[in-house]
Amino acid sequence: MRARVLAEPFPVVHLDTDALEATRLLVDRALPGLVVVDHDGLPLFILPGSQVLRFALPEYVEQDQTLASVYSESDADALCESLRGRTVQELMPSKKFLPRRPASRPIVAPDATVMEIAAVMAEQHSPVIAVVDGGKIIGVITVHRLLGSTLPAT
Hints:
Elements: H1 3-6, E1 12-14, H2 19-28, E2 33-37, E3 43-48, H3 49-56, H4 59-63, H5 73-77, H6 88-91, E4 107-108, H7 114-124, E5 128-133, E6 136-142, H8 143-150
Parallel strand pairs: 1-2, 4-5
Antiparallel strand pairs: 2-3, 5-6
């Protein structure tokens, strides 16, 4: 099966997208991650849901998990409040997420095979890969869709 057959519509966010809006998109649509695109609409990187969670988590709690126990339930319930007024780009922990070269972007061509798609997903540690044709995203493939297309019949 080729990427063009597996590709399905998927929302994207930009570096200047409001972080709270991006997080709502992730939650409301039960997405495995966010596709972050550049100014030309090409995927820069995929932020898995676990990385989006890190946006809201104070860095000192991530570095020392024992500090999480000092938070009250009401403070913890407001975890995402820290995202208000910030952009996706502001929340990036470093430039390590930005690809060093275009080939390292989470992209496959429409004629990519299942094995090629799986190899890119594994190399990128990404639950989502964009299918790009002629400089435009024609859809994405999630790991669930990819695995589902290859499961043997029961």
